[in-house]
Amino acid sequence: MSVLNPESDRIVLADTFPTKSIKMARWEILDQYDGITDSMKVNILSTISTSIDTHGTSDMYAIAKAVKDWLDETHGPYWTVVDGEDGKYRSAFTSSNSQYLRVKETRLGWRIVIYKQTTP
């Protein structure tokens, strides 16, 4: 299978394409565990974009809360959303299941970590 390498705009064999970090126009996917399907990822990124547009870039808590609330309603409770400017925040946690996504919002330079806890 061939894929488009967004860094060079060239078609490459899928075996030679680095899958750890895949860039899209606005998003760079840093980690995506198998519990996050591609369609789920697209919906999450769309929800984050809508939340940024709704709340503005200065209210990062409201953005994270809106995404968390949407995930809780759509995919069941106990989601965690951590957002922050790249290099200006740190987090430490244990994600005990495979529902984990870490992205970089390339226009704003934010990193966003999303994962589902298995218990409250």
Outline the structure in words:
The protein is of the alpha+beta class and 120 residues long. The protein has one domain (20-116): Protein Inhibitor Of Neuronal Nitric Oxide Synthase, CATH 3.30.740.10. It is built from 2 helices and 7 strands. The strands form 2 sheets. A 5-stranded antiparallel β-sheet has the order 3-4-6-7-5, with helices on one face. A hairpin with a 3-residue loop joins strand 3 (22-23) and strand 4 (27-32). Mean pLDDT is 81; it is low at 1-6 and 8-23.
Task: Put the structure in a nutshell.
This protein has two helices and seven strands; from the N terminus they run E-E-E-E-H-H-E-E-E. With 120 residues, the chain is α+β, with helices and mostly antiparallel strands.
Helix count, DSSP H or I runs of 4 or more residues: 2
The total beta strand count reads: 7
Averaging pLDDT over every residue, what do you get? 81
CATH architecture: 2-Layer Sandwich
Question: What Rg, in angstroms, do the CA atoms define?
Answer: 15 Å
H and E string: EEEEHHEEE
Strand content: 25-35%
Q: Estimate the helix proportion, in percent.
A: 25-40%
Structural category: alpha+beta
> So, the CATH homologous superfamily?
Protein Inhibitor Of Neuronal Nitric Oxide Synthase
Cα shape? globular
Strand order of the largest sheet: 3-4-6-7-5
CATH C-level: Alpha Beta
What would the CATH topology be?
Protein Inhibitor Of Neuronal Nitric Oxide Synthase
Distance between the termini: 41 Å
